[in-house]
Design a protein that fits this description.
The chain has three helices and no strands. It is mainly α.
Length: about 70
């Protein structure tokens, strides 16, 4: 997240949430752990709190949907 350029920060946050959604599904991490860590990272880059929350939620949900479609 810190190395993402302005304009790419939201995309980087989404990609991280999507990837970590797989670890949530596997039981390796909890959704709360992922959300807390990614929220901190997103806010530290200057993204708006509402944007951070919705991006993380969307990434995790789409990851779960992609797993369901592949099953």
């Amino acid at each position: 997240m810190q190395s993402a350029r302005q304009g790419g920060r939201n995309q980087a946050l989404y990609a991280a949430a999507y990837a970590l959604g797989r670890l949530i599904a596997a039981g390796t991490l909890t959704e709360q752990e992922v959300s807390d860590a990614l929220t901190q990272a997103g806010l530290s880059t200057g993204l708006a709190p509402a944007r951070v929350t919705s991006t993380i939620r969307d990434g995790i949900r789409r990851s779960a949907h992609a797993r369901g479609a592949a099953a």
